[in-house]
């Protein structure tokens, strides 16, 4: 079997086009959606992600602003800025790029963002709403993955889903979304004793561990759906996912590539959440 490839660029493009009319309606009513992205420090990967987020906003007509701080900034300065943005009516979404430098209390920063402007969906209130099956903001990467299932015609009801990775950004919310959608979910991670046992019986595998090509074709059940959330840079500068694409595509029925798979969907769902936040404000 050779898997069908799910093109994240095409789906992202399709969704972004559908956003333009919503942005136009909001803008005409004086509620142009606005996103502020805060970046602390000079992590090269974070710099690229933040630049891509701001550029994507501009392309669909959102107001966007990037605020950068030196890596040694006093965390209180960032907390004060968040308080100011929470009160600013032209700002509908606030995103603090993670990871933050070690001297920051990451949780305190995320909790300082107003839950109504938490377009990342990382605030405890929003995590709780998602856990209760009543989400307000869905974290962008797992949200993008759900859109890919929809596009690929994947019915999740009753399926065995294995998520590899238990991060707050991807693994845990992915597990909640799959559970809410009716899948039977197993979350595997670095302490899992027998990863092969789990992946080889899964109808759906979502890899989000940050280890290049660790999920190989012999770990996958024939016909499984394989979603690759990983973005790893190899010593030669090339990007690769957590999934060994070449061997898995021979076994899976549906697979996402890297680059051009989940990556473009993450930013797209950030735009979706920001527009949604503005629509709620305008209602
Ligand atoms: N760092 C890696 N992924 C993300 C994300 O989705 N949001 C934020 N804020 N930081 C990240």
Please explain how this structure is put together.
This protein is α/β, with parallel strands linked by helices. It has 2 domains: 26-117, Leucine Dehydrogenase, chain A, domain 1 (Rossmann fold, 3-Layer(aba) Sandwich), CATH 3.40.50.10860; 139-263, Rossmann fold. It is 41% helix and 16% strand. It has 10 helices and 11 strands. It has helices at 8-28, 44-59, 75-86, 106-112, 124-131, 140-151, 171-180, 195-199, 245-248, 262-282, and strands spanning 4-5, 34-40, 63-69, 93-96, 160-164, 184-188, 204-207, 225-228, 232-233, 239-240, 254-255. The strands form 3 sheets. A 6-stranded parallel sheet has the order 1-11-8-7-5-6. Strands 3-2-4 form a 3-stranded parallel sheet, sandwiched between helices. The longest helix is centred in the N-terminal third of the chain and has 21 residues, at 8-28. Guanine (GUN) binds at residues 95-98, 120, 140-141, 169. Guanine binds next to strand 4 and helix 6.
Describe the secondary-structure layout.
Elements: E1 4-5, H1 8-28, E2 34-40, H2 44-59, E3 63-69, H3 75-86, E4 93-96, H4 106-112, H5 124-131, H6 140-151, E5 160-164, H7 171-180, E6 184-188, H8 195-199, E7 204-207, E8 225-228, E9 232-233, E10 239-240, H9 245-248, E11 254-255, H10 262-282
Parallel strand pairs: 1-11, 2-3, 2-4, 5-6, 5-7, 7-8, 8-11
Antiparallel strand pairs: 9-10
Helix pairs in contact: 1-10, 2-10, 6-7, 6-10
């Amino acid at each position: 079997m050779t898997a069908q490839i799910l093109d994240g660029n095409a789906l992202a493009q399709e969704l972004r086009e559908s956003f333009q009319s919503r942005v136009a309606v909001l803008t005409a009513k004086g509620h142009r959606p606005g996103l502020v992205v805060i970046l602390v420090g000079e992590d090269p990967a974070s710099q690229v992600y933040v630049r891509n987020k701001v550029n994507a906003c501009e392309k669909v007509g959102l107001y966007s602003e990037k605020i950068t701080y030196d890596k040694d900034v006093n965390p209180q300065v960032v907390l004060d800025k968040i308080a100011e943005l929470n009160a600013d009516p032209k700002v509908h979404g606030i995103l603090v790029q993670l990871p933050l430098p070690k001297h920051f209390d990451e949780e305190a920063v995320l909790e300082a963002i107003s839950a109504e402007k938490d377009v990342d969906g990382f605030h405890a209130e929003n995590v709780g709403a998602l856990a209760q099956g009543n989400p307000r903001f869905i974290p962008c990467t797992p949200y993008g993955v759900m859109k890919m299932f929809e596009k690929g015609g994947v019915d999740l009801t009753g399926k065995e889903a294995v998520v590899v990775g238990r991060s707050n950004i991807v693994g845990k919310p992915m597990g909640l979304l799959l559970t809410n959608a009716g899948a039977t979910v197993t979350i595997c991670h670095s302490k899992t004793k027998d990863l092969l046992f789990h992946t080889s019986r899964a109808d759906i595998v979502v890899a989000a561990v940050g280890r290049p090509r660790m999920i190989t074709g012999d770990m996958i059940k024939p016909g499984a759906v394989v979603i690759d959330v990983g973005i790893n840079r190899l010593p030669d500068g090339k990007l690769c996912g957590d999934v060994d694409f070449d061997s898995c595509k021979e076994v899976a029925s549906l697979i996402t590539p890297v680059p051009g798979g989940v990556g473009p969907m993450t930013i797209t769902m950030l735009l979706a959440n920001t527009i949604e936040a503005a629509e709620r404000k305008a209602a």
